[in-house]
C-alpha cells in the first residue's frame, strides 16, 4: 500500500546552503582529518560532487589518459563527463594507482566503501579540531567549490554541468553571488 501514498517534498530540502568555507578553512579541515577522510574531502574540494556521488566512483570512472572523470550515480540521474585540469587529474591518478578497474576510487582506511554514516563522524571531529563552525558538513566542500566557481566568473551553465544540477538550481542558490559581476559589466557600458 505504501506506493499508493503520494510522495511529499522534504521541507527545506532545496534551501540555500550557507556553510561556506574559504580556501584556508578547507585546507585546515583537510589537515585536521584522518588520512582517508582527508583524501575524500580533498576530492570534494577539487570537483563539486555530492558526497554520495564521490563515494560511488570506481577506478573505471576515471580515464587517466584523457583526464576525464565520469560521474555515474548521482542525483542528476545520468552520466556526465568532466574534463579535469592536470593537477586534479594527478590527484585522481594517484588514487587509482595499483587498483583494479572495478575497485572503488576512494576508500576508507579499513578498505570499505564510504557512505553517509561513515564520513559524518570523522568530518564532525575534524570540524571541531579545525575550529570551524559546528554546522560544517562534508557537503560544505561542494557548496564552497560551487561558490568559488560562480564568484570566479564561470558561467552558470558550466557550473551546473560540472556540479550535476540544473541552471535554475544554480541561479536560485548562487545567482546572488553574481551581483558584482553584473555591476562590473554595466560599468563597461558607461560613456
CATH level-two architecture: Orthogonal Bundle
As for the CATH topology, it is hpI Integrase, Chain A
Give me the side-by-side strand order of the main sheet.
1-2-3
Beta-strand residue fraction: 5-15%
What is the C-level CATH assignment? Mainly Alpha
- Largest sheet, strands/sense/barrel: 3 strands, antiparallel
C-alpha termini separation:
68 Å
Shape: globular
Q: By CATH's scheme, which homologous superfamily applies?
A: Intergrase catalytic core
The structure class reads mainly alpha
Write down the domain tally. Answer: 1
Average pLDDT, all residues = 90
- The tally of beta strands, per DSSP, is 3
Helices and strands, in N-to-C order?
HHHEEEHHHHHH
Uncertain segments: none
The helix content, as a percent range, equals: 40-55%
Number of helices: 9
Radius of gyration: 18 Å
Describe the 3D structure.
The protein has 191 residues and is mainly alpha-helical. It has one domain (20-187): Orthogonal Bundle (hpI Integrase, Chain A). It contains 9 helices and 3 strands, in the order H-H-H-E-E-E-H-H-H-H-H-H. It has helices at residues 23-31, 35-46, 51-55, 86-96, 116-130, 139-151, 156-163, 167-174, 179-187, and strands at 62-63, 68-71, 80-83. A 3-stranded antiparallel β-sheet has the order 1-2-3, with helices on one face. Helix 1 runs antiparallel to helix 2, helix 1 (23-31) packs across helix 5 (116-130) and helix 7 crosses helix 8. The longest helix is centred in the middle third of the chain and has 15 residues, at 116-130. It is globular, with a radius of gyration of 18 Å. The model has no long low-confidence stretch (mean pLDDT 90).
Amino acid at each position: 500500500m505504501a506506493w499508493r501514498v503520494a510522495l511529499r517534498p522534504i521541507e527545506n530540502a532545496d534551501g540555500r546552503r550557507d556553510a561556506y568555507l574559504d580556501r584556508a578553512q578547507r585546507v585546515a579541515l583537510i589537515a585536521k582529518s584522518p588520512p582517508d577522510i582527508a583524501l575524500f574531502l580533498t576530492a570534494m574540494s577539487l570537483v563539486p560532487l555530492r558526497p554520495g556521488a564521490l563515494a560511488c566512483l570506481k577506478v573505471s570512472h576515471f580515464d587517466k589518459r584523457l583526464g576525464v572523470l565520469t560521474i555515474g550515480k548521482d542525483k542528476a540521474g545520468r552520466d556526465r563527463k568532466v574534463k579535469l585540469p592536470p593537477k586534479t587529474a594527478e590527484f585522481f591518478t594517484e588514487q587509482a594507482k595499483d587498483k583494479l578497474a572495478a575497485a572503488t576510487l576512494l576508500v576508507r582506511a579499513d578498505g570499505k566503501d564510504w557512505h553517509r554514516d561513515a564520513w559524518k563522524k570523522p568530518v564532525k571531529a575534524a570540524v571541531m579540531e579545525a575550529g570551524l563552525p559546528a554546522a560544517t558538513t562534508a557537503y560544505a566542500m561542494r557548496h564552497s567549490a560551487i561558490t568559488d566557481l560562480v564568484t570566479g566568473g564561470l558561467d552558470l551553465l558550466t557550473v551546473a554541468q560540472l556540479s550535476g544540477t540544473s541552471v535554475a538550481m544554480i541561479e536560485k542558490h548562487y545567482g546572488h553571488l553574481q551581483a558584482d559581476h553584473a555591476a562590473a559589466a554595466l560599468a563597461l557600458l558607461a560613456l
